[in-house]
Structure formats: C-alpha cells, structure tokens
Amino acid sequence: MNIHRQARRFSAGALAFALASCTTTQAQFNKKPEAVSKAALCKTILETPDPLFYQQLLSELSRRGISIPECQQMVQQQKQAAAALVAVALVGTAVAVCANGNCGGGYTPSYGYRGNCQYDWQYDAAGNRCGRRSAWSRPGGF
To answer: Please, are residues 120 and 131 in contact by the beta-carbon 8 Å criterion?
Structure first.
C-alpha cells in the first residue's frame, strides 16, 4: 500500500511539473529564443499580460511559421490531454482505495432493537433465542 501511495504522489508531481513547465519566462526567451519549444511558446503567448513580451513571442512564432490559431488548438489539446490524465489518475486512486476494502457498499443490516430481537424466532447478540423478549412479543409490537 505504501508503494501505491508513493507512486500516486510521484505521478501527481510529474503531471504538475509537466504542466507547469509548458511556459517560458522572458529571461529564458531572451537568452535563446530558438531553444524554446513550440508548446512553451504557444502557451506563453496565450497567457502573458506583458505587451512587449507578447510582441517578442509573436515575432518568434512568425519566424517559425506558427499562427495564433495553431497555438490555441495546441494548448487546448494539451489541456484535454491533461484532463484525461487527471481522470485516469482519479480512477486509479478509486480502484486502489476499493482494493483496500474502503469502497463502502455491501449490505450492513441496521437493527433498531437491542440484541437484534425484533421477532421471537431470532437470536440476540449473545446467541440466545429471543423468544418473549422480542419486540414482536411485547404489547405494542414493533
């Protein structure tokens, strides 16, 4: 079980790192614009509030022959892929929890009578026949 927990934490960390590393900073971009990946370039141009940085990113996209609609489509596909990964991780977690017996479900009878004595033919918690001590046998019934 401990291995499953560590694997889930590692997977969640890797996913968070992968999604966070899809953007670039202005300093990284200014050092070597051609080294920035297409995905990072697209995600950054769609998220940056800085107009000067936006213009620099736009000129790099133009140099590479990439349009803004292409970037929007790529970022949308990445988000959908990330959502699918999260869904798979949630299903995997649910399966792991159920495998440990924490799913709930099943039938657990709830008896409203002390000793489980609703009818005279039943047996109480100690294993004795209820007989006249049952709710059925008392005036007023159950």
So the answer is: yes
Using CA atoms, how far apart are residues 117 and 112, in angstroms rounded to an integer? 9
Residue 133 CB-half CA count within 13 A: 12
pLDDT in 10s for each residue of the chain, 142 residues: 455 565 556 555 555 555 545 677 888 888 888 888 898 999 999 999 999 999 999 999 999 999 999 999 998 998 898 888 888 888 888 787 777 766 766 555 555 555 567 888 888 877 888 888 887 877 765 5
Global pTM value: 0.51
Between CA 142 and CA 67 the distance in angstroms is 76
**Dihedral pair phi/psi, residue 123, rounded to 5°:** -115, 145
